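S.,

Sequence below, as promised.
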Amino acid sequence: MTTSPPLLRADDAGPDRLKALLQRAATGRDGQAWSDLWTELYHNGSLDPAHPLVLPTLADLAETDEADTAAPALHLAGALLVQADQQHETRTLRHQYAPHVARLLDAANRRRQVTTDRNDYCHLLEAILNLEGDIHWAEALFWGLISEEYELDCPDPDGCATLWVVLGERGHFTSTEDHAHADDADTFPLHPADPHTLRGLGRRLHDLALTDAHEDIARALTHAFGQATCPECRQPFSIAAQIATASS
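The prediction came back faster than expected:
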């Protein structure tokens, strides 16, 4: 692992704007550069994520010892890969830069083992799932863990209500959107999954969180992969399944 952010060579090919932003981001002290990279690579597409500077440079940055450089590089790279998968319905970008994606994934797994901040850890798990590319709803899953709530539609075919699924300091319950923060709201408790019966993605993430000493995240995951009840129609549903449906 390197000990300082790498610098781009003056003869690297690519648009001047992209090269300049990546050069600034490599310093680890320029939050605006990362914001601009997100805007121009991810949100409005004015820069091309497939440009030969992007993923190789993000992989270089992800391998540094500086969290302020490595973490945003991992987050952005994972998001760009998932977006490309969805937009083009192929995995061309992943295949084209497979060695760099492997480096990014290795860097993410190393960093998660030493990350103590709760939200930073959630972002790293999100980046790992995005880099692996097996699901497209990692962002929604971990955003809810960070914000301690999910906004979901009732799974009833008639869509009887918009629901808040709350898991955190305010408790663990479902409520209708209009009354989510009201003291007299009708709420139904969540039913967390038994960690011993978790399977697949839920079991893997739960075990990773325990291994990395994030017991609070492990507990939150048992709720995210547990059951909730719609206060309107009383229909029970899988929270994770509804997150995945809402993100499809």
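Residues 99 and 136 are 21 Å apart (CA to CA).

Coffee later?
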